[in-house]
Amino acid sequence: MATRKVTLSLDVAAWSFAEQAAARAGMSPSAWISRAARREAVRTGCSPVPDPADFAIADEAERAAAEETMRAQG
């Protein structure tokens, strides 16, 4: 999974909880916070924003399939 480096501010207690939970899970605090944020977002009904590059790949595949159909029809 791709990552993005960001700067966040957490209150002291939240950081302490994250460090402890990450250690118990055998993860880095960054990985634990990422997983926790993803779970909470999904729980509250959010979904990932699609990557525009995915649309370009799908469009290219659709174009190639249409060209192949046209060639097959003569």
Give a written overview of the molecule.
This protein has one domain. The chain is built from 3 helices and no strands. The chain has helices at residues 12-25, 29-43, 52-73.
Number of helices: 3
Mean pLDDT: 88
Q: Which regions contain 5 or more consecutive residues with pLDDT less than 50?
A: none
H-E string: HHH
Which strand-content bin applies to the residues? under 5%
Largest sheet: none
How far is it from the N-terminal to the C-terminal residue, by CA? 43 Å
Overall form: rod-shaped
Q: What portion of residues is helical? A: 55-70%
| CA-based gyration radius | 21 Å
Number of domains: 1
What is the oligomeric state here?
A: single chain
Blueprint (SSEs and pairs):
Layout: H1 12-25, H2 29-43, H3 52-73
How would you briefly describe this protein structure?
The protein has one domain. 69% of the residues lie in helices and 0% in strands.
Keywords:
3 helices, mainly alpha, single chain, 69% helix, 74 residues
